[in-house]
Amino acid sequence: MKILVINGPNLNMLGIREPDIYGKNTYADLCELIRDYAAKKGIEVKLFQSNHEGALVDEIQAAYGNFDGIVINPAAYTHTSVAILDAVKSVGLPTVEVHISAVETREDFRQVSYIRQACIKTITGLGFDGYLGAIDALIENGK
Ligand code: CA2
User: Fold this and answer.
1) What is the pTM (predicted TM-score) of this model?
2) Is the CB of 5 under 6 A from ligand 1?
3) In the chain, domain spans
4) Which residue, of 91, 98, 99, 117, is most buried by count of CB atoms within 10 Å of its CB?
5) For the domain 2-142, what is the CATH superfamily, name and number?
């Protein structure tokens, strides 16, 4: 099984500011956690991060025919991007939405998620562990 893990804008800055919301670990720590977990589960994983909406759309499109599922934290684009929603719909791959923070307890503008309707599951507020839960959900979905 091959899973693509996508992170959106500013998540490369994890651990640098706002540790009360996003924790004190870095994006490199997140990548290591996911790679170790994938190895333990015997699956292949690719990690991709971009600050650019079009680059995220390109990566989702490129997953078609090459991956069995997508884990995505679109970050701020969660709340704005019809383009990312359409990209996920266009490839038709099982997709899990992840947020490090409990978005449902935060500002009103974070209550909207465009991508959610195209996802088999949404995980919020579990920190980095949410990505591991998302991988589990895709493995379970593929059985
Ligand atoms: O909780 C999440 O994972 C979010 O997707 C993170 C996004 C935010 O816009 C979403 O509403 C919820 C923000 C990522 C920004 O990451 C930072 C990293 C370091 C310092 C400040 C922000």
Assistant:
1) 0.98
2) no
3) 2-142
4) 98
5) Dehydroquinase, class II (3.40.50.9100)
